[in-house]
Write a structure and sequence with these properties.
alpha/beta, 8-stranded mixed beta sheet, 15 helices, about 30% helix
């Protein structure tokens, strides 16, 4: 008789930063942990967001008991508005997460009736799984880890966490609970790997508060602070420093404004009366009495700070006395966008604080010594590093092995792989369908790899349109083809090359063996002739688009 096993199935966040989603299955019950998005890299032209492929969950929809959310960052909740219309299951999270999720669901006209809020010590039962929340410290309030009781043993999922003994929100990671679990026995530990490469300990948020206070207190003019819209603790630190130095705070950007409103209503953000100003008061408030909070820490083209840096913002123009503070680290792949924004600000004469030397940001993830301490407290039988690129997962596995976890009990996985585990052992057993689903404007999933390849080709080498007129009775060429180029060559400066292409196409289509007007044949002849011709002339391959006209 085959013994039942637990199946651990990552659908996103393994081998990448963001798009976190993990399924756990026991017999006919499946629970899902987190449902996040990932921001596109520079190769994903025209793409707004990337979300997980949930084909596996849709194929097993009758088994999915619910989605459990660890905290309210985009890489853990951002895909919910796109997933819930397809997967009609309840969502369980903390109060702040529910508030921020509700805003996102309303934007896409998705019902929030299935989103349920629990306390940071909340408990739920979903099928064969009994789940307990426990508080962890992260860069957003109401973050939790998960204790998952199963018929085969206890699982611990840390969510994103760090060990901060002087946190802004006053909540520390519950080490006592972790130690208690370790004494009772933990089958599998799943722990955040994002900063597994970083030695030592992650600095406390108190360091950032002190640095922001020094910057705001010493600034001669207006201060602009850019950070993530969901980084509520950082917004609180900016507010606290502004109160201390008698400045008013203005929040610019829809997402940050909405998040601050929800956090204030729920009591997670404390802003004294009279500190927060309306944006129509901004122009009348003296610069030396102003602090502006805005999005754009990742150099996003449509964000508030990027529009300010380019001179295109309707409310704010930079002045040489202004001070701009980047209170966030660049997400891998965004470095060039951030550097471009910093350069644009420097060109306008303003002062910029950015990078580690400014001490205006610390990350919300545990570094190596914290991860080692976690292993010592939990003492798991098996270990699975989660959340991070493949090198982060590998480094975290090696770190666990250095403190005594046997190599055969650590598993480094990629999206889609299935880990089967019980008290006796574990193994990678098969794979499910996973991948990226691209959000492009209102379109979800309509853009595939072929479309992206075409966009990359257009961005590199441009397009050539060949307009060919054929007699619809005889199939013979009528006149010489026309050539139009965009993004490939300058039509005026390359007249000789264009005329050569027209001559070649005239000869090719006039001398073809059959004068059929069959569209596919003529298009292929046109593409093949022009592709070789332009490559020989330029060593580039523009996209060739034949347009056939029958006259």
């Amino acid at each position: 008789m085959v013994k039942d096993k637990l199946k651990i199935i990552p659908l996103g966040g393994f081998g990448e930063i963001g798009k976190n989603m993990l399924a756990i299955q026991y017999r006919s019950d499946i629970i899902v942990i987190d449902c996040g998005l990932m921001f596109p890299d520079e190769e994903m032209l025209g793409i707004d967001l990337v979300i997980p492929d949930i084909s596996f969950l849709l194929e097993n929809q009758d088994k999915v008991r619910g989605i459990v959310v660890t905290h309210a960052h985009e890489d853990h909740i951002g895909a919910l508005p796109y997933v819930l219309p397809q997967l009609n299951v309840p969502v369980y999270c903390t109060r702040l997460a529910k508030g921020l999720i509700s805003v996102k669901l309303k934007e896409r006209k998705v019902s929030e009736s299935k989103v349920h809020a629990l306390g940071v010590h909340g408990k739920i039962t979903l099928g064969a799984f009994r789940i307990e929340f426990f508080p962890v410290n992260h860069s957003i309030p109401d973050s939790v880890g998960l204790i998952i009781h199963t018929p085969l043993g206890t699982l611990v999922h840390t969510g994103d966490f760090k060990l901060d003994y002087t946190p802004v929100a006053g909540v520390t990671t519950d080490l006592g609970k972790l130690a208690q679990l370790g004494a009772q026995g933990v089958l599998l530990l799943m722990a955040d790997s994002t900063y597994a490469e970083v030695p030592g300990y992650t600095p406390s948020e108190s360091v950032v508060g002190e640095a922001l206070g020094n910057i705001i207190g010493g600034a001669k003019g207006r201060v602009l602070v850019t950070t993530f819209a969901s980084l509520i603790s950082r917004i609180q630190q900016v507010v606290d420093a502004s109160v201390k130095y008698r400045r008013r705070v203005f929040i610019v950007g829809r997402s940050m404004t909405e998040n601050a409103r929800i956090a204030s209503e729920l009591g997670y953000l404390k802003i004294p009366p009279g500190v927060l100003g309306n944006n129509d008061e901004l122009a009348r408030t003296p610069r030396e009495k102003t602090v502006v909070l805005t999005t754009g820490s990742q150099g996003e083209p449509t964000s508030g700070l990027v529009r300010i840096a380019s001179g295109g913002h309707k409310l704010i123009r930079l002045h040489p006395t202004d001070t701009i503070v980047f209170s966030a680290s660049p997400i891998p792949g965004n470095e060039s966008l951030v550097n471009r924004t910093v350069d644009a600000i420097f060109k306008q004469g303003a002062q910029v604080f950015y990078g580690e030397r400014s001490r205006a940001h610390v990350h919300g993830h545990g570094s190596q010594e914290e991860l080692k301490l976690l292993q010592g407290l939990v003492r798991p039988r098996f270990f699975l590093p989660i959340h991070g690129e493949y090198r982060h997962l590998t480094q975290h596995a090696l770190l666990a092995q250095s403190v005594g976890v046997p190599p055969e009990r650590t598993f480094v996985m990629e999206d889609g792989e299935v880990l089967e585990i019980d008290q006796e052992g574990g193994r990678i057993a098969g794979k499910v369908t996973t991948g990226n689903v691209y959000v492009d404007g209102l379109s979800v999933g309509d853009v595939d790899g072929m479309v992206l390849r075409s966009r990359r080709m257009l961005s590199r080498d441009g397009i050539v349109v060949a307009i060919v007129a054929l007699n619809k009775q005889t199939g013979k060429l009528v006149g010489r083809p026309e050539i139009v180029s965009r993004g490939f060559i300058d039509m005026d400066e390359s007249r000789e090359m264009v005329e050569g292409a027209r001559d070649l196409l005239t000869q090719t289509l006039s001398n073809r063996r059959t004068h059929s007007v069959e569209r596919g044949y003529v298009e292929n002849e046109t593409k093949n002739a022009l592709d070789k011709y332009f490559y020989d002339q330029t060593k580039r391959r523009p996209m060739i688009l034949p347009v056939l006209v029958q006259v």
